[in-house]
Amino acid sequence: SKCCYSQCICLITVTNSEFSRAGDFLIGGLFEVHDTNEMASEFTPVAIDCSKQPFIVTNYRKLQLMRFAVEQINNSTQLLPGVTLGYEIFDLCSDTRSFPGILDFISVNESVRPWHQLQPRPGNMTSKVISVIGTYSSTMTRTVAPILAMDFIPLVNYGSTSSAFSEKVKYPSIMRTVLPNQQMIEAMVTILLHFRWHWVAFLFDNGEYSTDGADLFLKKIKDTEICLAYSDEINANTNFSEMFQKIDTQKINVVIIFAPGRTASMVIQAAINLKISKKVWMATDAWAFNRKLLEMPKIDSIGTVIGIIQPKSEIPGFHDFLYSLQNISGQGEERVCSQMCNCRQLTTEEIVAADPAYSFPVYSAVYVVAHALHNLLQCESGQCNTSTTVYPYMVLAELKTSNFTLLNKTIKFDENGDPEFGFYSIVFWNNEEAEEVGFFKMYPFVDYYINSTKIQWYTNGKVPTSLCSQDCPVGSAKQQNGIHTCCFDCIVCLNGTYINTTADPYTCVNCSATEWSTTASTSCRPRSVEFISFEDTAAIVTLFLTVGFVGCLCLCSVSVFFYFGKPQEAFCILRLLPFVLFYTVCLACFVVRSFQIVSIFKIGAKYPSVQRWWMKYHGQWLVIAVAFILQVLLMLISYTSVPPKLYNETVLYPEQIVLACDINRAAVSGSLILCATLCLLCFVFSYMGKELPKNYNEAKAITFCLLLLALTWVIFATIFILYRGKHLQTLNALAVLSSLYSFLLWYFLPKCCIILFQPEKNTPQYFQGLIQSYTKTISQ
């Protein structure tokens, strides 16, 4: 046959050969058996001669695998019974200039007609092939797919992993049996996170496969702990010495090469030449099984190579098929490697030993087409309806609903034409072999496993690290240093704060009011609630001592009962109100008593009219009443404006919550000033009586009581400034009791002793005698 490409005619031999087989239905095949980098002619439209380009045995192996799958189907009595599949295979050795084979696929009677002349109606011929298997590279697929899409010829792809082909609006006729780049990047990021390699370099070339991988990698690591420390596009002009110097300067220990084998070989060879070592190299399935790289001299010197590959799939009967071809053609005989010419001597052993990657994707690609055709021809009960006219678009529609089992794998596709089957093997390069050490699968759910003990790290057993900054100590927050989140300083979280590295590793969070923490904490602990209960020993002793009071002192002592138990707002009010109110009456009484003593012994003699006025108008009751009423008004104003309230002390004791009462000092200052004024007057009057008869000690007793009272509250004020624990309330209650006991013990108790043990001194005659004696002394 002849195929026209521009003004060039390429003679193509299509006799029964490795590239062609007759059948009821034809499947196209596109394999890069040769590879070329030569520039297109600028003057004449010359088709490229693939046979003169470097031969790729691994791709030739894929071609043979397609042939084997077709022969296996043709020999099956279950799949397409009575129907023979044929194939037309072309060597697609150039990304942009190998069009003769593609045009041959869409030709009808050796010519390509406008689409409107090929409407699927009776009597019209359709394209030569019902589907095409291929191609391997993403760049070639981007070139081929639009041409085949014109006639909706399904392109069942076995090797192109670019995420672009998942866009059905742009590529409606592509179905893939190979996992797309999204899954490869997912597996790669999972491994990086597993080993905590957060500081990495990413190398790629300008091909569709590489640039797509670079874009996906950047998107995937955006919300992770991984940082892209260095990236570079590799080409023939790359300065590898400068590149590796930058990588070493930044202390990057993990290098990802997301590129075809040709580009990866350039990088690895440069690393060996430049004596780059102590690196972890991450290989994609494009070069992880590359035999030339595995066997490259000094390959072990560069460090540790971890690969993510399409798993080795043993295709039953394939090796026998290859050896049968050898037996037919004879050992060492030239075989046809291209539809254009013979290429070279090749043995079956070389084909068997070639990189087995993508074996199952090629094998399954042929089978999905066969199953689609099987359904279209309504094959059942050992026969098919061969009178059915099959158009490529019908095959495409059937491919989308594929659901069958092949080699214990369920074959089906998602809405983007991507496979919902398959997984990756994780391998380690060990002595010229790619040893499997784990797996990563996506279906029916994401799962992975890595046996790290099988990996011989260049660090002699210890997993290498690749970090910009070492992990912060426990209880420290990260403070980003520079543009990368992986580079940071560590700030220790202070008392009362904690760090939750899972939620936010950059912020020390304040504990709530009911919690506390020490320095460098990762959580807060509940504060213990502290108050003096009625069962507390200090409370029991204090309350026992309170029982001994009567009169105003008894009413004052009521306050003590409200210093214990869990504080309430009513407790806060009653702690101060009874004591201040009735202690004011008590102090007023002592003021009156002090004044009366001085009046009797001193003022009465010198100023008798004052004493008469005092006696006539009952001055003592007037003073007591005025002091009491004034204190009631002051307390009423205080509690109305700023009433006491509950207060939780959490600052001084971070591990506790001390329940207390907050009494506004400014609000009660008037009441306290009144009490202080009464104390001062009492002290002045009692001090004036220091020269009274020695056997009359009442004024001295009052003075001593006042000194004890002042000392008590000075001590309590000092403690209040220095200590705010739960026992402060007990001390406050004791200060109240001390104020009461100072009068009880040093004023009332001596009077009781006189009444009980010296009754002769407790008579009006004895008291009158003291007055007369003191009066005579003054007059003399």
From TrEMBL:
Membrane topology: Multi-pass membrane protein
Family: Belongs to the G-protein coupled receptor 3 family. TAS1R subfamily.
Main location: membrane
Entries under InterPro entries matching the protein: ANF_lig-bd_rcpt (IPR001828), GPCR_3 (IPR000337), GPCR_3_9-Cys_dom (IPR011500), GPCR_3_9-Cys_sf (IPR038550), GPCR_3_C (IPR017978), GPCR_3_Ca_sens_rcpt-rel (IPR000068), GPCR_3_CS (IPR017979), Peripla_BP_I (IPR028082)
PANTHER family on file: CALCIUM-SENSING RECEPTOR-RELATED, TASTE RECEPTOR TYPE 1 MEMBER 2B-RELATED
A Gene Ontology cellular-component term: plasma membrane
The protein's name in its UniProt record: G-protein coupled receptors family 3 profile domain-containing protein
One of the GO BP terms on file: sensory perception of taste
Domain G-protein coupled receptors family 3 profile: 553-763
Taxonomic path: Eukaryota, Metazoa, Chordata, Craniata, Vertebrata
Pfam hit, one: 7tm_3
UniProt superkingdom: Eukaryota
Cellular compartments annotated: Cell membrane
